[in-house]
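Record type: monomer structure entry
Structure origin: computed from sequence
Chain ID: A
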Amino acid sequence: MGFFKDIKSTLGSATEAAKASKQMGDEIAGIQTGQVGYDPNDPAFAPIEGVDCDTYARIMGGLGKNQIMGPENVEAYVTSNGVKPGTWGDVSIGWTQRMQQYQHVANRIGTLMSQASM
């Protein structure tokens, strides 16, 4: 009896995982094509120090793509991309915390970052 219960439980878990995987795949495909919007009123996407989710992802992708390193170079790059001087540390920490807290934020930023770094 326990054996069949375990199989049923495993199949249920696999079905849920497949649904979640498809949903994430659909979301990523939509972001890549620009066809999936997000609710700008969702507090998870509220700008941090004036930097919205998409801008953060674009800047992070650009930092990687252009291999920008060192505090002075990063500061120059981010300010040239519209970030208020002296705020990048708070912006970066804030978006990192949101990605850890909200999977949909992590999905969007990850997808947009990979596009910007190509």
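Annotation 1: The radius of gyration is 19 Å.
Annotation 2: Residues 20 and 102 are 15 Å apart (CA to CA).
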